[in-house]
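Exercise 7. Given the components listed, write out the predicted structure of the assembled complex. Treat all entries as one system.
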Amino acid sequence: MKSNHKWKRKMKKIISLLILAIFFISILPTATPKEEIERTTTEAEIGEEAEEETAEPIKKELTMARDFAEIKREKLQKTGALEEEKLDKFRVLEKEKLKEVMKLNEEKLLKLSGLREAQIKRLAEVKAARLRKIAQLDEDKISKIAELDKRQLEKLSSLDRSRLNKLSALSSEELNKELQKIEIKKIDPKILFKKRIVSEQKINKAEERFQIAKQKLLESKKELDVEIRLLKSAKENNDEEAAKQHAKKYLLRAADAIINHLEKIKNKIEQSPDLDEGEALELIKDTNLKIEELKNAKLKVEDAQTKEEIREAAKTINAAWKKIRIKSEFYVIMLVNKKVDGIIKRSEQLEKKLESILAEIEEKNLDVGNIDEKLTEFSEKIVEARTKFKLSQEKFKEAKSTGVKSDIQKLIIESKSLAKESRTALREAHTILKEIVKEIKALDKEVNFEEEREEEQIMIEEKEEKSKIDVEIEGFLDSSQQKLINSLIKDLNQTKTNAGIEIEAEIEDENLELKKEIKGNLTEIQKDLVAQLIKSFESINEDVKIEIESEYEVS
Amino acid sequence: MKKSYLALFLIALFLFGCVKQQILEKPSEEAAEDILQTTDISEAGKMDEELDVKSLETLEEDLKLIENI
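Answer.
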């Protein structure tokens, strides 16, 4: 009895321990030891190699034939409508390549079966998702693509659908020329899209300050409207004292309004993850300098007693405002365009993810025809956005290198208009994307959107002659001065001169101060143009600063 | 008493395992939402409007008036 009881207790202990062990095993990751098996296999293989040397090619053929028959049978079972003879062309492929190709649906396999064996072998070297993308094209285009060498095929197949379709319509010669401009780069998607990390706390604080500045600007604007009305009324009534008072108040509120406008921009810069730390710091530093300039102008206004002093203070603030207005437009274009650029790049990588996802879904024999069409539309919208964005950037660059006020304003309007068109295309792309995601989720609930596919680690860049001439003009120039600048830029570009040119003309108490700093070796023509420009500044009314940075490298 | 402790321990272990699985697998829903959020352009348009200088359009003209007071 006693021993029975003991035995029962022992059994219970064993069972408890067993259950505990099962729980531990279910939580911990498991791994099967492969090494030993591989080592033993390799040793056996070495022994076999010597014996099979002479029978190698025949054995390989038999293996290929056996693999082909097996894979073909599997495919025909899944897609009953496919004709057996159509698949025979693919017998030239080795097992792994064959498996990849057989993941394609009926329609695509039929297209590829029309190619020669050499063409099929070449295309089979391309990764599954990319091959699927190529197989969507017309047979003529597929045939042309299948004649490309490995490197060209790699480049072409990495492109988005829209560019792939466009380039494959070109003649072989033109296609080769375009492919030479394309570079493939490996990237880490996680760090590609954010130039810097801005903490949630910093964003919230900057947004708070932004809202305060926005409110203050609205209040300043109301007061400006009141003061200018009262000033005009005092002038009509020939009330000089009242006019002076209202003029002073207006100037102080004007300075406040401009400061708050700059504060708004500064706080958006602080929040932006699309600028790198260096860029953000430079912009903030520049904004702070301008805010400081206006605070000093305010002191001048407060001290002003006579009409003359008030006029001078007004002149100072107006001169500052004219430059700040243009500069602030530039900052805004830069901020917005950085965001747009980031979204375009993310969308391009996203297209790659979706290509891989569609390939995975199609492997399960699910019909993705509708989603494919939408993905093509998405691709076209992104290309449209990218094209408009590039044009917008070009106009912006032109605006920065121009000192003629009317031209700057015209170019800013053109740049903003193109940027808006780019954003419209991105908005339309986003609508299509929502539909794509919805349909994918409806079709296959097991799709993993989070997983990073191999395709996303590749980025396409178009090589261009990297002539980097950066021009920044603060202040305004007349048309003859602008012509000199344009000639200088053109010559720097033609001679590929690396140089840094800084010219500053400042008016202090009616005295002109000219500063010049030149780095690099300018040609005689370039030196002459700089001299002419400096001479032309002797008759300016307002401060001007010109910075030209020329860095020329051929890629 | 010992049995009940053991039973409690096993239940706790089981629950821990379930929760760990939930945390490790980010729901596909969230990842899909993430994709849509990071490609949403509406914030750029909003920023453009918020930072527009239209409200200070007449400033230059009014300051010119005061320059000639």
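Discussion: Residues 82 and 106 of chain A are 6 Å apart (CA to CA). The mean pLDDT of chain A is 88.
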